[in-house]
Amino acid sequence: MSEHLKLGIRLRKFNRVCPITGYKEESIRVGSPVIVQTDRGIEYGEIVSFARGFPRTLSHDVKLKKVVRYATAEDVEKERSIEAMESKGYVTAVEKANEYELPVRIINIEFLFDTSRAIVYYRAAEGKALNLRDYSRELAQAFAARIDLRQVSPRDEAKLFGGMGICGRGLCCATWLEKPRHVTVKMAKEQGLSISPGKTAGVCGRLMCCLEYEHGK
Question: Are 65 and 82 contained in the same domain?
Fold first, then answer.
């Protein structure tokens, strides 16, 4: 294996990549599914390699502890069943939020591989306190799992779930950019760009981070 290749584990949701080190080259099968332990619990992933270093990862949010083993055929089948669980779970999470008349938008739901924990991602008005205890308790009963309710901002949503920019490429924040840029309307004006939201706003609804790249050049 080339010394320039970097290896990582791509977790099953949201293109998260955690780097791995201290491996023996002959024991690594790139592209193989694996079962790993992270600081969140037991998860399913795939060994990936990069010739030019890592893309932007969420390793600051999810830390890899160890690779438990290569995935078996049964593990692969279970992974498919978890995807089906998440689809149904999303519908349930939305329905329950509506029943409680919660001012939230459910974005996605993620089960860990052992299904002991479900992470529900949602959007809500910033700065508004919400009491989600009853909602969380009911989801825990419905899913027979520990519930982790995670509020995300517009930029977090774009970073987590990705998308395509007007340039035709994957979003910077979802592929390589570690931190969002500090961008102002003044930067767009100084570059002679229209300040129309349709031309200067990213999929998150905020000013595009790339406006900062050419500023001052």
Answer: no
